[in-house]
Design a protein that fits this description.
Layout (H helix, E strand, L loop, with lengths): L23 H22 L21 H11 L4 H17 L10 H9 L4 H8 L3 H14 L8 H17 L41
Length: 212
């Protein structure tokens, strides 16, 4: 269970359907990440490595919440612009290229996402992401050291990743409008825990007591 109880008065409402106002870039990232995870897990079943260097991000079992819904929650309850999600994808791609023996799989993809997208107030992002503040602090440090603190993303790199994501959609015959980098202006709702029904499997063998 998460540290915050189900009957917490400030709990964010459960979101079961994607918000129609959600940027389509999240749909692109969801498809790309889901295909990446599926491919990597097939490699794992074939005797490949399941990401030893990413063990700090592994949960005991995959969370029940899907990648699309997880990204949608982060977008809905934070002040991230769509560009933040592209930059987060850049960071994850850099990480796996720096540590080629590591694979993004269902056991680690959610923690990698919330860590890569987070840009302020760890306590808030921990609540949105379904982990404890202490654990997210630890994941952030692990992530930074694995990237050698190489966090700069130039406009040229950013544009190249946008084009890559658009090409992925062409390859899979999914029509998505061009990625927009506009700032998300929705207000942040109550800073509190999201419903935990589908987050109960978000426990880590390395967690320091926030999840059991």
């Amino acid at each position: 269970m998460l540290a915050i109880a189900n009957d917490d008065q400030n709990r964010l409402p459960e979101q079961t359907e994607p918000d129609p106002a959600t940027p389509r870039v999240l749909s692109i990232l969801s498809v790309v990440l889901e295909r990446l995870v599926n491919r990597n897990e097939l490699l794992g079943l074939s005797g490949g490595r399941l990401g030893k260097n990413l063990e700090a991000f592994h949960g005991v079992r995959p969370p029940a919440i899907s990648i699309p819904k997880y990204l949608d929650r982060i977008y809905k309850y934070t002040n991230c612009s769509p560009a933040c999600f592209v930059v987060g994808y850049v960071y994850i791609d850099r990480l796996v290229h720096k540590h080629p023996g590591s694979l993004v799989v269902s056991l680690n993809v959610h923690r990698l996402l919330v860590t890569s997208i987070m840009h302020y107030n760890n306590a808030f992002y921990a609540r949105v992401g379904g982990v404890t503040n202490a654990e997210l602090n630890r994941l952030e440090m692990e992530f930074l050291f694995m990237l050698d603190f190489q966090l700069t993303v130039t406009s040229r790199v950013f544009e190249s990743y946008c084009l890559h994501l658009e090409r992925e959609m062409v390859i899979w015959n999914i029509t998505i409008p061009k990625i927009e980098g506009g700032i998300h202006t929705n207000t942040i709702e109550d800073i509190a825990e999201i419903s935990v029904e589908d987050m109960e499997s978000f426990s880590s063998p390395l967690s320091n007591g926030g999840l059991t």
